[in-house]
Amino acid sequence: MKLWEVAELPSWSAPRWTWTWWTLVLCSSVLPATAMADQTGYEAQVVRCQSRDMEWVHCDMPVANGVDLVRQLSDSSCIRGTEWGTDRSGVWVTLGCRAEFRSRPAGGASTGAARQVRRVLRCESSGRPQSCPVALQGAPVRLLRQLSAMPCRENHSWGVRRNEVWVTRGCQGDFEVGAADGSGFLDAPRTLVCESKSRQRRFCGATIGKGARLSKQLSGSPCEEGRGWGWDARGVWVDNGCRAEFQVN
After folding, report:
1. Which terminus in the chain has less CB density within 10 A, N or C?
2. pLDDT tens, residue by residue, 118-162
3. Where are the alpha helices (DSSP H) in the chain?
4. CA triplet 149, 53, 81: central angle to 5 degrees?
5. What is the pLDDT of residues 74-119, one digit of tens each?
6. pTM beyond cutoff 0.70
7. Residue closest to 147 by CA, chosen among 128, 174, 183
8. Does 3 reside within a domain?
9. Residues 50 and 126 both lie in one domain
């Protein structure tokens, strides 16, 4: 129960020292609320950054000494380079990644979980052939995610030469560069959004080795595999108004 609800306040004729004492008591019952709002311990050291509805979100935090992901909160993957990263003023998340991040102290080592990092190159064609230089040293390349409405099909609208990725015919995409030592690509699912607008068939390119599954339907129209959506090694297709998020690998 609050102090002023049970205590009998002094009258106006009370001595000045009595009023001073009551003023201190009443103020002390209110002021700590502001001080207690300051976070301490674990909560003071981390920043929670959350992408909802697949949007790109930026969260300010110190990044000079590095940042670690300390706790993933989402079912969607949080892979550095595609689902989260840093810039000069903080950390960003996208594609449904929700996580807690902590700044490293000066001279401190990484305190996060085992790092999962993708090496990603964005290459975009406005309709004409475009070359995007990258040091491959024999490393494999795959289409991580198509960004354009125009399809990205390997050896048709995109491909790889010695130390470059090339795109043409309006293909715009994010390309993942694998390990040069032959260990291949990061074995973690990727989130892909594919939408059939005006009930038209749409192809969403992504190199798929193991399979694809529907993780979240976004449309009122049904997304039935084989009729509303499907996949092959080149990507995912949707039709008849199906709009959904897919996990591909």
Report:
1. N
2. 888 899 999 999 999 998 988 999 999 899 999 999 999 999 998
3. 3-6, 16-30, 32-36, 41-45
4. 70
5. 988 899 988 999 999 999 999 899 999 999 988 766 655 556 788 8
6. no
7. 174
8. no
9. no
Question: How many residues does the structure list for the chain?
Answer: 249
Q: In the chain, how many domains are there?
A: 3
Cα pseudo-dihedral 86, 87, 92, 95, rounded to 10: -80
Residues 33 and 48 in one domain: yes
Name the residue range of residue 50's domain: 11-117
Distance CA 206, CA 248 (A): 8
Read off the tokens for 94. Answer: 């996208």
CA 87 to chain centre: 13
Same domain for 45 and 126: no
Rounded Cα–Cα distance for residues 39 and 45 (Å): 9
Q: Which of 158, 186, 214 is the last residue of a domain?
A: 186
